[in-house]
Amino acid sequence: MDVFVYSRDAAGTEALRDDDKLLEKHWSYMDAFAATMIARGPTFAADRETVTGSLHVLGLPDRDAAREFVEWEPNSRAGVYEEHRVWRFDNLLGQTMWEFAGAAGEPRFLVVVRTTRRPDRPERLPAGLRNRLILYGGLRALEGAEPVGVALAVQAECRQAVAELLADARIGDETGGVEIHDWEFGGRR
Q1: Are 41 and 116 part of one and the same domain?
Q2: Residue 24 to residues 21, 38, 166, Cα–Cα distance (Å)
């Protein structure tokens, strides 16, 4: 089963983020999941320098493995994160972030839309959004099948452009909120 994990940083943990030993532990831990990784990377504040969290989308055997992935992740154990959102992920693009062939240098964004509506198939999305998608899929509760949202990663000029793409696509409904995070591809550098 594919799992979407968004871990939001706790306040005051910047020094932990700057610890090279902890960073190496994190990367080594993620190396063990490389074969099933769909997307990964840090989110940022609008300044695109201050880290606000981490995204990991990967295949795991079951719910227990998803819980263990979060529990044993080195940043989690060190207290970097304030909270984790863990959902099942329906990968509607059927690809990983490494298969995305977007324009170099343009910013990337992670979007989480809370909604009870199931997402449209990618081919039904407006071309302007569809051609910029890095990641796209439905979110469901870890313990059940009920939809809780839609997640996408998109490349666009700015946050406003992302908001316009979402409005054109009518993703979501009036029941939930929309989060737009500045994001970049993660992994060893």
Answers
A1: no
A2: 5, 20, 36
Where among 73, 88, 103 does a domain terminate? 88
Q: What is the CATH number of the domain that holds 62?
A: 3.30.70.1060
Distance CA 81, CA 64 (A): 20
- Does the pTM surpass 0.90? The reply is yes
Q: Are both 102 and 162 inside the same structural domain? A: yes
- The per-residue pLDDT for 157 is 94
39 lies in the same domain as 116:
no
Cβ atoms within 10 A of the Cβ of 41, count? 20
State in Å, rounded, how far the first CA of the chain is from the last one.
Answer: 28
User: pLDDT > 70: what percent of the chain?
Assistant: 97
- Cα gap 119→51, rounded to integer Å: 29
Is residue 188 in some structural domain?
A: no
* 137, pLDDT greater than 90: yes
- Per the document, the length of the chain is 189
